[in-house]
Amino acid sequence: MKYKLIALDVDGTLLNDDHFLSPENKEAVAEVTRQGGRVVLCTGRNPKNAFPIMEEMGLTGHVLADNGAVTVRVEDQKVIHQYEMDGRGLDPYIRYCRERDIHFDVNTAFELYVDNVEYLTQEARFMYEHLELVPASLPAWEEFREPIVKFTVFSTADKMDEAQREWNTWLQTFNIQRSGEFFVDLMHPEASKGNALKQLAKQLGIRQEEVLSIGNYYNDISMLAFAGLGIAMDNSPLEVKAAADVITGTNNENGVSEALIKYCLS
């Protein structure tokens, strides 16, 4: 098989709009692994809600979570690498969110903290329940015992547009990524899906030209650009399609299966 490492985004790519894994995508992934390919998830999700998808596909190996800020080995859930953020550098962003009633959370590799767990909005509660995550209230920075890897804000698309525009005018101490219509993520300046994929490929002894990646959103651009073959879903924004080598079908049309069959299994 030409491509030995296959990196798949999850939401909007591997899963359909109802957040289900189709039998077609599952079978294509299974056949790729039977033929010797290594399939990894490269997602903005926390590792905890990426592991069940790996399990559903019968995969071991690695998850590149939190937009590449954390790489975790699935078998023993060991953190292989993480990009640590300076929590105190988040203070102006937290003030901005509090002043504008924008929800935020602070993430370590496996834990998630919100401003006050007792006062979560209904939308935030629904989101965490859907993702099967249980947040805790944000402690003081000096009380953290694990590295902080991601800061996520969640609100309406208009508020996210405005926040991203304003934050891009600030001194750039973090990598600011739009990970969804209603989400903006801040991470270590070097944290990205592309850098995590590059690091994992090097660790596994796999050449860049032997890497294939599939994604659909702005936070996928770095891994599409790194891979020997970067594939954008047809439901991607134009800027994401422009960063890719080829386009496959949408996430509701089993675009992942279509791409794997064409480029890995033919």
UniProtKB/TrEMBL annotation:
- Species assigned in the record: Paenibacillus sabinae T27
Protein name as catalogued: Cof-like hydrolase
Say if the entry is tagged with keyword Disulfide bond: no
PROSITE patterns per the record?
Answer: COF_1
Taxonomy, top ranks, is: Bacteria, Bacillati, Bacillota, Bacilli, Bacillales
Supply one GO molecular-function term: phosphatase activity
Domain of life the protein comes from: Bacteria
Question: Cellular component terms, GO, for this chain's entry?
Answer: cytosol
- Which keywords belong to this entry? Hydrolase
Show the PANTHER family listed in the entry.
Answer: HAD SUPERFAMILY HYDROLASE-LIKE, TYPE 3, PHOSPHOSERINE PHOSPHATASE
